[in-house]
Amino acid sequence: MARRGLISLFVIFLLAAEILADEPTYNVINFGAKGDGNTDDTQVDGNLKRTNEIWKENLNSWLLFIRINGLNIYGSGELDGQGTNWWSCKEKNQCSMEAANSLELLSCTNVQISGLKLINSPMMHISVGRSANVDIRGITISSPGDSPNTDGIHIQKSQHVMVTNSVIGTGDDCVSMSDGVVDVSVNNVACGPGHGISIGSLGIAGTVATASDIYVSNCNLSQTTNGGGSGFARNISFVNINMNEVRNPIIIDQYYCPHSSCASKTTAVQVSDVKYLYVTGTSTSSVAIALNCSQTVPCTGITMDNVNLWSANQGQQVQSNCIDAKGSVKDKVSPAVPCLTQ
């Protein structure tokens, strides 16, 4: 496959009624694909379905695009990762291999992904790593709310990434951003079920981690664990966000631990210049705003403006909680955040 110029992958539904009724599975080799590393096999008409067997060797991804400049993946077809067996062996702690991501971009530039539907990935549905100028729009991602580690879109060590006009429901983060992300925009994304739209974890095992210039806007989060949270992390904005029955609508946690055996730390990734503007909706927990920052490295420049969160449970009240968080409250913030100090 050539690695210069425009490369397109078409994944298109076959509209003939008799074909749709049969819901067949195709081996692309039987339809002209060569898979020899030289032939252009980039057009696929129909849906792609991964084998549901547990792979016998470690493979990080099902569909991998590496070191490509000018990649265009579009169509209305479906990529089915058939991850049920993987989720089951994870639950029983019986997996001998790591689960694979469905679609991975590694060291790619000038990428467009649009129109696709990705379902039931063994692990992350789309992973973007060490890439730049990536535009993901108009996609649908779906897996059960209890499927483990099935992030919708995971972005790390990448810059100038846009995720827009998409619907994502998974068992993990709808969109997750980790170390090394710069200039990421998430706009008009419907998220749920899932853990929300998150930044982190950062600084795992004492490593130095950075994330900056992140803008999340016009998103709807429904029945998610978290709303927008951040885990140097700086210059981050959450604007026009609607929450529906979210456990932690606004959360910054510098003491986040994904398991029970984390050691207590006296240092943390510095969090600064985080804005929550026009955020509304309901919380399923009593603490709707939680800013848990480090005494050694406090959060600074936290701004709340036009935030209105109330309990999803009739008759109950919600509150805020802060530890070593510094910033300001501009206008109409409920619940009140008196703990946010100047």
TrEMBL record:
Gene3D superfamilies: Single-stranded right-handed beta-helix, Pectin lyase-like (2.160.20.10). The active site is at 195. Keywords: Cell wall, Cell wall biogenesis/degradation, Glycosidase, Hydrolase, Secreted, Signal. This is Polygalacturonase. Its main location: secreted. PROSITE patterns: POLYGALACTURONASE. Residues 1-21 form the signal peptide. GO terms for molecular function: polygalacturonase activity. Belongs to the glycosyl hydrolase 28 family. It is found in: Secreted, Cell wall. GO terms for biological process: carbohydrate metabolic process; cell wall organization. The keyword Secreted applies.
